[in-house]
Amino acid sequence: xxxxxxxxxxxxxxxxxxxxxxxxxxHAVILSGAHGSGKYTLALMLARAMNCLEPPFPGxxxxxxxxxxxxxHCSNCTRIAQALDLDSRFAEAVVARxxxxxxxxxxxxxxxxxxxxQPVAIMLMAILHYIKDLGHxxxxxxxxxxxxxxxRLMDEHWTHKKQRSKQMSNPDIxxxxxxxxxxxxxxxxxxxxxxxxxxxxxxxxxxxxxxxLRGEGLVEVNLGFDYEGTKIL
Length: 233
Ligand SMILES: [Zn+2]
Known about the structure:
By secondary structure, this protein is mainly alpha-helical. The protein has helices spanning 10-21, 39-51, 75-81, 86-111, 118-143, 147-164, 171-182, 206-214, and strands at residues 185-191, 198-203.
């Protein structure tokens, strides 16, 4: 499946491939969108375009449109494609679409209207505004050196996030979070990507929090602040 078969977001894909062509692709790109919108598929396509050993039309720089593409059969393409189980991804996407539609229906009923798209959009905007506001308040707390407030904002954010979707957490994470809050944490955050991750807490009682979480078998990871931003290693 070459880039031309990817149905949505042609402009964004064009821009990403242009970046590849100019060798100006950023170290990290966040692809966001609803579950089932093709983020994972696209990420793997970009990874193959970056690493393909036999790009089609090498003279023209890649695909039939002159932008980087991938052959799909060289050893790099094959290896990267192993991460892509299309059938199950497709099934997931179908389920996700159905769920979205159900959410639309419930929201439309709640709003007493038959317009299935608007309530979702309004709710999303409200959520995004709220999160933006949390960001501003966090910045204020950091700039004024009020880290206690920052900790509490982390808790507010986590509570809000959990209300938004049941999939944000699981019973283990809930237990650890609760335990941390009972043992001196002021707030926390789940960080890291799907399939594994970290819990980050803010506390003014380090010893007590460490002991409580170690008792649950959790491993502490040391971290520090970086003051230089992203850099090429
Ligand atoms: Zn290839």
